[in-house]
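Aim 2, interim progress: modelling of the zinc ion-bound target.
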Amino acid sequence: MLEGSLNEENIKLLIIAAVYLILFTTEHYAPYFKNRHLHLPHSLRNLTLATINALISTIFFIAILKHILTWSGNNQVGLLNQLNLPGIYSLLLALLLIDLWQYIWHRLNHQISWLWKFHQVHHADKDMDASTGLRFHPVEIIYSNLIRISIIPLIGFQLDHLLLYNILLLPITLFHHSNIKLNERIDKILRIITVTPHMHRLHHSDIQSETDSNYASVFSIWDRLFKSYTMRPIEQAFNLGLSSSYSDRQWNRIYGMLALPFANKTS
Ligand SMILES: [Zn+2]
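Predicted structure of the complex, ligand included:
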């Protein structure tokens, strides 16, 4: 089983690396926010945090996650197992339910103050690019994994469901955090189905009402359905990051990102 999980992790890593390199290059030649001279050092800092998180997930959670998935499958536990739908319908419903959970969980990270303390490390980045999609505080990664482990038996997700969802989620997350300038019409068409760079960029705006909107991860429908969708013309100027001093340079170094949730002030 361990060998299998390592293979899947390698595939995930290859997909992330390939998509990231394409986006990094595109950000260089067709950026939305221009004149960023420190693209590489900025990305390397975020990727260092991402590496710490990948190690935590690999060492502590992958084996447990697989054990829970096998257990709930063998015991036919959870909604999807009880519904017993034909394979393709079960898969589609599973993808929608995982993505709905991502939406709810992300929204809770903005609404519950102690969750926000950690999630704001992701939002403090005022030079958001594809690397920001992997920039999370390790504590957020730990409790997100713990919650996910508890949700699996309730919904009855299977290993294939989570694998396919991750294969969709990771490239889309990198894409919608990227600093690439898409044609407004293309962005508009894409965001009928999925989350585009401009849609998610507004979630990283330094205006609170925009930060508290556009929470979706893969399918954009959730923001429309739950009335958290915000849009503004692609050419209209705005700033990224937090309005507080947490977006200052000191909080965007590796030590600063790790220390930020424990800093003694509110934002
Ligand atoms: Zn957020």
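Residues 2-183+244-262 form one domain. The pocket of zinc ion is lined by residues 106, 110, 119, 123, 203 (CB under 6 Å).
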